[in-house]
Amino acid sequence: MTQAQKRNSLKADRFTESVSREMTRVALQYSAVNLAQGFPDFPCPPQLKRAACEAIETDLN
After folding, report:
1. What is the pLDDT of residues 29-55, one digit of tens each?
2. Which residues contact 33 (CB under 8 A, 6 or more apart)?
3. Which ranges of the chain does DSSP label H, i.e. alpha helix?
4. In a domain, 1, yes or no
5. Would you say residue 2 lies in a domain?
6. C-alpha–C-alpha distance, residues 22 and 37, integer Å
């Protein structure tokens, strides 16, 4: 099968651009500070870590 013959699944065809990506584009357009995404400079609270582990262990998706 050639690359031209490959098609996305029907589910993938319904994907839209994420809000974070659009906000990044707008921030760049206006040379603004992008508050839509980033990385915290503080540790993750222990209760959040426990909740995340519990969700993973119970297959909560």
Report:
1. 999 988 887 788 899 999 999 999 999
2. 27
3. 10-13, 19-29, 46-57
4. no
5. no
6. 11
